[in-house]
Write the structure tokens for this entry.
Amino acid sequence: MPHQTFEEVVLPHLDAAFNYARWLTKSDADAEDVVQDAYVRALRFFSSLRGDDARSWLFTIVRNTWYGRFTRAAGPNQPTVYDDVKHDRPDDGLDPEALVMQQQAVERVQRAVQELPTDFREMIVLRELEGLSYKQIAVVVGIPIGTVMSRLARARERLQAILTPSAPPKGTQS
Amino acid sequence: MICLEAGRLLDAFVDNELEPADAANLQAHLASCAACRQLLADRESLGRLVRHLPYYPASDRLRAKILRISTRPRFDPSLLAWAAVLALAVALGGSVEIVRFARARHGAETTAAVADEVVGDHVRALRDAHLFDVRSSDQHTVKPWFLGKVDFSPPVEDLSSIGFPLMGGRLDHVAGQPVAALVYQRRLHPINVYIWPAVDRTAASDTRSIRGFQVRHWIRNGMSFWAVSDLNDAELGELVRALQR
């Protein structure tokens, strides 16, 4: 990446880096720490950036920083076992799209995503909020593309189950 | 196509990530299957809901901090000292030496940073029991596995004959770039060997110990190698010499 400076290439992705870190850590303070560390590392490794996908490159560093920092003491992050019982059930019979009109619905989605296991949550964030391709997600998370596809599908299934527990189970006809 | 397969492809279809042939097959199935059409509709409305999730932008305070980090070198007072030394050196006709020295100094910092990274990665891979994406002692299985996953072809060699059996490999990331990680073993000690195309092909070999792990670094045929293990340095050295042959 000749003649382009760190500020030109990496700084523009600060909001994206923070958004990703914020969803990973679920805390403003922790996300700020992670992003700050990640930028220090990114600056140090800037000369190793190949290709032009600086955002995915930065996401990888954010993820590694978060991983090293927050899973060191506690061991690998334990997936939260989702317990349907303790969560509000949505009003029966309401079309999810109609619910969007209500702030309440957005809050419910937000809560549901917050409570997804981290592996699933980051899939939703990288795909739906950051709009990364499967290939880019594979690079950031360090998994094969096929796993991106299946993990994202499972994340959405889980989310759907949380949001509409009254919906009939998915079709099994063959 | 059966519903099970359709369900597997549905998300990639919604995301526009399907190969055209798969997409056409799925569409044909959808045309005749109301249950799968309902699944698709559910996914689409979920997608619309999820896009209303809050996007957290960085605060101005964080932005200011990051800006300070990324512009710090400009205000680094030691740069002034360097400039003075450089000016003096040029005046004395020793500019080439100084440039070489400055480059070596920068290289040493980078080497230390990368060494830290590979040790951190080694520890992470062990802790998460994620050492292998491809588990095989056959170099003709492991080497082709990297095809299409990294943009280089790492040398892969089984060294069972000298007591370092190849266990497998995985795709990993060091310094934000994809690297090939090979795993060898001696007794109960796993050894990670990280390989990627060298940026600076003249960089010196390196041996160090970080948090109880032995780290060896060398450049060979344009590739940068890093070996990390809790094995003692003498035995790690055996492996390194074999890989350098």
User: Anything to note?
Assistant: Residues 95-127 of chain B form the longest helix (33 residues). The mean pLDDT of chain B is 85.
